[in-house]
Amino acid sequence: MMKNGKPIIGLASSYEKDEKNERIFLPQSYLDAVRHFGGVPLILPVKGDLAEAAALVDLCDGILLTGGNDIDPALFGETVWNDSVEIAPERDSSETVLLELAMARKLPVLGICRGIQMMNVHFGGTLYQDIPTQLETDVRHRMEEPWHRCGHSCILEPGSPLYELAGRTVIGVNSHHHQAIKDVAPGFGIMGRSEDGLVEAIWDPRAEFCWGVQWHPEKIWDIEDASAKIFEAFLEACK
Ligand SMILES: [Mn+2]
Predict the structure, then answer these.
(1) φ, ψ for residue 100, nearest 5 deg
(2) Is the peptide bond before 146 cis (omega within 30 degrees of 0)?
(3) Is residue 49 assigned to a domain?
(4) Domain for residue 3, yes or no?
(5) Ligand 1 centroid to 193 CA: how many Å?
(6) N or C: which end of the chain has fewer CB within 10 A?
(7) Ligand 1 centre from 50 Cα, in Å?
(8) What is the total count of domains within the chain?
């Protein structure tokens, strides 16, 4: 049940730390998309304690897990594969708490790019840590900018909610990732794969709305209506 006039969408912030700087940030396109589809974006910080996270999630009608760093492979029982893997354990911990709080409150969750990976790992799945060195494929999953265009297609699973929404089997997606789902989390269903068979969209049939997509619908919803429909469905579930 929505708490206010418009659904408040908590956005997991991106996080960066090096010798000189420590900051949270988000690409504006996430906020623009949430606003366009009728929500109020609320940026959720990293490194707060459980009480703070609970206080913030209590304000939210839905949670959006955004793109960014790689997931620490320790979370799925592996060590770091190579130098391409850039982790931010502080962010992983914050999002683990966010997911637990969201599940306890039965809040809708949409995971985008890193977000689908975080969702999959949190619920017991695994990842390819580095597609170029771990998977033979002709599909370009790390396309060059601009990302406001489709780079490869996604073949939807008939019967999945995304297939029902899109009303067709093949949709266009952008692609800016070097990691991807390997083993899908137990209980989750596959909604779509790229031409090489890589899983690009999952959902939890046990939840009201718990979806993850490997692409960035916030950057192509105005040119690919399947991506617009993902945001429409998510915001609708948050009402
Ligand atoms: Mn891809």
Answers:
(1) -65, -45
(2) yes
(3) yes
(4) no
(5) 9
(6) N
(7) 33
(8) 1
221 burial level (CB within 10 Å; 0-12, 13-18, 19+) = buried
Going residue by residue through the chain, which has 239 residues, state the pLDDT in tens, using 9 for 90 and above: 566 689 999 999 999 999 999 999 999 999 999 999 999 999 999 999 999 999 999 999 999 999 999 999 999 999 999 999 999 999 999 999 999 999 999 999 999 999 999 999 999 999 999 999 999 999 999 999 999 999 999 999 999 999 999 999 999 999 999 999 999 999 999 999 999 999 999 999 999 999 999 999 999 999 999 999 999 999 999 99
Catalytic residues, by residue number, are 113, 216, 218
Evaluate whether 182 touches 126 at the Cβ level (below 8 Å): yes
Q: Six-digit token pair at 27? A: 């690409």
- Count of residues in the chain: 239
Is residue 2 domain-resident? Answer: no
> What CATH number corresponds to the domain at position 66?
3.40.50.880
CA of 84 to the centre of ligand 1 (A): 17
Q: In the prediction, which pLDDT does 20 show?
A: 94
User: Do the domain assignments include residue 153?
Assistant: yes
What is the reported pLDDT for 82?
A: 95
Cα 196 to ligand 1 centroid, rounded to whole Å: 10
Give the domain extent around 215: 8-237
CA of 55 to the centre of ligand 1 (A): 35
The rounded Å distance from CA 47 to ligand 1 centre is: 30
Residue that the structure tokens 């192509």 belong to: 220
Six token digits for residue 128: 């390819």
